[in-house]
Fold these 4 entries.
Entry 1:
Amino acid sequence: MNDQQPFHPQDPGNHNPYTGPPPPPQYPVPAPLPPSSSEEPTIISHSTTQELQKTKRSLKIMRIKLIILLVMFLISVGGGITFYLDQASQSNTITSLRSQLETIKSQRKQAPADQFHQDIQGWQIETEPLTSNASLNNIRWKDSDKEPMDLGYCHFVAETYRVETKPGKLGNTCIATLNSPQHDIALQVHMLLLQGNQAGIALRWSGLGQNIANYQFIVKKVGPDGVWILRKGIPAADDTNLSTGNISGLFSDRGSPITIGMKTVGDGIYLYINGQMVGHRYDKNSFGPGTVGLSAGPGTANTGCEVMFSNAEIYIPKS
């Protein structure tokens, strides 16, 4: 008897001869996949694609419209804010101007008037500043554009009144036509020499040609200084200087006007420069009533004389 075990080539040799070969190894079995929601792929028709594209375009157009509406809304709101700010700014400006005006009025009430205006208190003003012939109470200044003159020119230029003397002429006076000749009367005006060195004002001007009577307050420029003369124009006779004086530095600022004024009351004649009295004179043979005038000259042989007048004030006593 042979004790050897039979050879089994398929066995690896580690099996039990009584139980047989070991069972094969057990591997984990993967879990089954969850069922698909659709066993077959969805097929989108051509008509469905067109509808989707239309929907997308509609949404895009709607978004554009919403953006446009939003921009317009922002613009309108911004415009409203700008308008509000502009109105607020204008309101602040008006308030500031009103405040400044009230301050100026207050200062005027507190500040004393110049001597000229103090001396005509209680009188009434008869004309507005020299800007045109549309003056108060139908006062009219001579206009050489309508009535040519031999001695020079009297006309309104840029809301000022220009009196000019032609070259070689002795002087030119432009008179105003009042409602009636005045005996007691006052005139103050701003005066600026544009060419030449002499200007003046006249009161109680009456007569024609060689028979003119008047009082003239003349101011001459001598370098930076001024010389003033009260002259009595006597009909058919040489003019007479009633009074003279000097003011140092009167014309030191060549570009600035000065004010000259004169008042006649009874036999008294009062003279003012820059609002202050510079002289007065009594004339026992004083002239009767007349009108007012503004003068320039004499002119030089080549250039003549030109004076610019503005802001004329004519006063008469209240009746």
Entry 2:
Amino acid sequence: MSPVFVTLVIDTVAIVLPPGVKVPPLSGTRETTDTETGAVEITGHYDNLFVKVNEDHSVFIQGSLPRFLTGSNLRMLRRQGVREAVEKLSGAFSADPSLAKVVRLDVAATVSLPRPVPCYYPVLGSASRFERVPYRGGVLYRHRTRSLTVYDKGRRAGVAGHLLRFEASFKKRVNPQFGRVVMLSDLHEPGFYEVYVRRWLREYRRISKVRRHVLTPPSGVRDLTWQLAAVGLHAIGGEPVVSDMVDVWEMRRGRRYSMKRRLRELAAGGTSETDDALIAELDGAIERAERLALAS
């Protein structure tokens, strides 16, 4: 089955507008006072966006750009869609997008895969400098400045299909992470658009892939012994490592040949073909999502 791609690009953003912008009428407004500084803040919502007006009259805004523009974040925005969302947001707040500082940036893709999404979780291993934890039925990789999330978007959105979502969230220190000051107007600029799309793929590639060695119901004691030997061979480094040991052991040439043949047989039967297929399906879907985004 060929994957059907929903597409990739920005979902949630958080920005800070300078003082002097026009704040449209908000719903659910509340006034709060910071107990430590005494600063007064006004919070509320504009459409799906959370808005906070600080005492210095700067404005913090956070929310999903696709949902703001189209009412849903299932189908993500490509570059032209990002431009339209930025223009709509800038118009609502009478703000210059080149003066709106980005303080959070979530880049995501939803892809359709041939198997139920939870089938892919076991092949997702560790990621350097991230903590891997279960999260809301999916997998979360935590870091102090960003996170990576994999989950079943179809189930969460209540739609049919095996829809896997991979999301890279740059939640703190956005400027150092991208090596530049990031403004709202940059999000649809071709050069920076390519930067964050490629960065999204690099974050996915941080996650190691696990090829499990799975025991199948044995036909007897001999079959069980064979399967355990195959798993043990993999655990100590695989056929090349043990083959090198056999080369230096003292034995007849015929016995050495027989041992190496047996090692090759064990190695061939030791890796789960199902896991190899899962990894290939997932890698292929993610990589194609990046290519489609860059072609837009």
Entry 3:
Amino acid sequence: MQHYRKNTSTRVTRISSNRARKLFKRAYVVPLRKEGIANALRRGELESLGKNAIASEEKRIADDVGLPPDQIIIHLQSTKIKLYERFEVTREGSERNILLRKKDKPPAYLDEESPIYASTNPIRTLYVFCPETHVKKVKEVSEKVFGAPSFPF
């Protein structure tokens, strides 16, 4: 019985501390597809951001807002959805998308024009998180940095 009480007390303490945490909030959300970022080349740049580039963008946003860089988090989420996949069309991570040139329109990737081809690609979304008190300013700065308005969330 004592063992049970000890565990219950520990759980209550953990729950209390979780409720008191000040978690970062979403300030900016943009899907990395045609609807989110119209320029296919810019989307490609954002999809391929590495750790150093992300750290640089986090610092850039933090400096503009007046926060320490560790108070800004940029997260690239990738969700794989398998609607249709055959061995012949499965691509490896090192292969690049096919860029289509269109008359009087910006370039677009084949996966945006072909639903079957698109089903082999993961859905990617870019998020920026920050303390709740700075959400509005971080959103404004992120929209300038990434060149696209935030999607509603």
Entry 4:
Amino acid sequence: MKRSAPTLRNQTKMRNKYFINPAVEHEAAKVYKDGFPIYMMVGKLKKELKRTKPFPDPVIMQFCKAYWKHKPNAENPYPYFIKTFHMVSAEWHSTMQQAEHQKHKMDRAPVAQSIKDVLKGMFT
């Protein structure tokens, strides 16, 4: 049985399951129109990692920027995608961990001070 070509509506519905933010979708569509199968790559990686949530928007945006910057090196799509995506993802996770660390560092109260207050409250 021969399958018919997907309609534009079905293609849009299929693509939107990978990207939530319209700006990310727009950047991914530009990369796709340039000939790089970004939707297939994201879907394949998502399936290999058994991931149920979409990838973070900043990671996809950074990948698209890296694609335009290193476009001549993207001859073999999947190895290029995996290498670049992992690099961008590691950079994003590192930035997020540093920001979270700074937040916790600024928010925490000195432990010795709080113990001192507890003991003072017990004996007064």
